[in-house]
Design brief:
Blueprint (H helix, E strand, L loop, with lengths): L4 E6 L3 H16 L3 E3 L6 H6 L5 E7 L4 H19 L5 E6 H5 L4 H4 L5 E2 L5 H9 L18 E5 L1 E2 L10 H5 L3 E2 L2 H13 L4 E5 L8 H4 L4 H9 L6 E7 L7 H8 L3 E7 L6 H7 L5 H14 L4 E8 L6 H14 L3 E6 L7 H5 L6 H24 L5 E9 L3 E5 L10 E5 L9 E10 L2 E7 L1
Parallel strand pairs: 1-2, 1-3, 3-4, 4-5, 6-9, 9-10, 10-11, 11-12, 12-13, 16-18
Antiparallel strand pairs: 7-8, 14-15, 14-17, 15-16, 17-18
Helix pairs in contact: 8-10, 10-11, 14-16
Amino acid sequence: MTGDKIAIISLGCSKNLVDSERLMRMLDSVGLEVSYPDSPGAEDTFLRGRRRKHAVINTCGFIGDAKEESINEILRWAQLRKAGKIDGLYVMGCLSERYKEELPAEIPEVDRWYGKTDWPQLVSDLAKSHPGSVPYDRILTTPRHHAYLKIAEGCDRFCAFCAIPLITGRYTSRPVEEIVDEVKMLVDRGVKEFNVIAQDLTSYGRDLYGKPEIARLVEAISDVEGVEWIRLHYAYPNEFPMDLLDVMASRPNVCRYLDIALQHISDNVLTNMRRHITGAETRALLDEIRRRVPGIHIRTTLMVGFPGEGEREFEELMDFVRSQRFERMGAFAYCEEEDTYAARHYDDSIPDSVKQQRLSRLMALQEEISAEIQDGKTGTVQRVIIDREEEDCYVGRTQYDSPEVDPEVLIEKTVSLRPGDFCNVKIKAAYPFELAGEAVI
């Protein structure tokens, strides 16, 4: 198939995106032309011409909405396959890993299904030769100046609601040396900002070194010349490695930002969720994080409507959010996932209407808090990395803002800037999900 065109459609989380980027590099290494049609008009461009074309969909299977999105995308490309617009359709990732027995019969237009970890076989099947690229080499689909850095696969936590361990398997860390080599390679290509990701950063290194080593890893990345920002995603509150806080506080290129999913605060709900932490322990941890890393912005994710959450437990959650005033927060309503502990042992009896009403109340509260926190930045000077140029302004982010999920900074065009540049910006206006200002010398 040398010379054929391959479109990679990546769905779901940033961890999936890293897999897609590695797949793209492998396909490129065996002579296939790879495209990532996620921008306006890119798909139409891919479908033009007489060359043979194939599509690979990297799916998500985490929750109901993600599964529905994946199925709809597969069906859309299946119609293109039936219409002769593409010559091959291949599906990989979490959804096909989880439902590898059921899906082939339901969507026969797909030429072949692959799981979460066997996608190098996909390259061999398409190219009739085994890829020989460096295991961590990849083609970046993010802007040139920032990249996601996946340091582990899998999860050992087995929370009651979560199907991730059923899909990805047990926790597997990458060696520190290999990760640092990847960072050096990406810095040589112009990457300045690294968003470190794993299903559970807290457990990093335990399987390789007998104890958590996330602090040592972050130190090692921080030491690489050219690394401007390191941002940490998806820590777990139980057994949190306190030595990481010392690294965050002492290293100027480690962002004062921590993404730590807490899910709830009620002891009853936390016990049902099998989170292995109490509400009091959660509060104490947050107090310690804020004490040892002044100015840190905490992003968390919360869940409403889990079995055992009555009105009292939900009001406790609301009070928790009021008192903690999270700088960044997302939330979702519980949706039962088959084969999980919760699906086997609990009755999902809370009506969807109640779940949605609670979710709306929680997010309305957070929007008020976010607006107040954002307004507090008015008049300050923030260091900003430029992501893109638009007609009327430049768009960037502070160290407190992760790509795609957090607020952006709109910068007046009073100076000439390019994507990847850093500049100091005086904030002149604040909105719940945006800041606006001008560059200062």
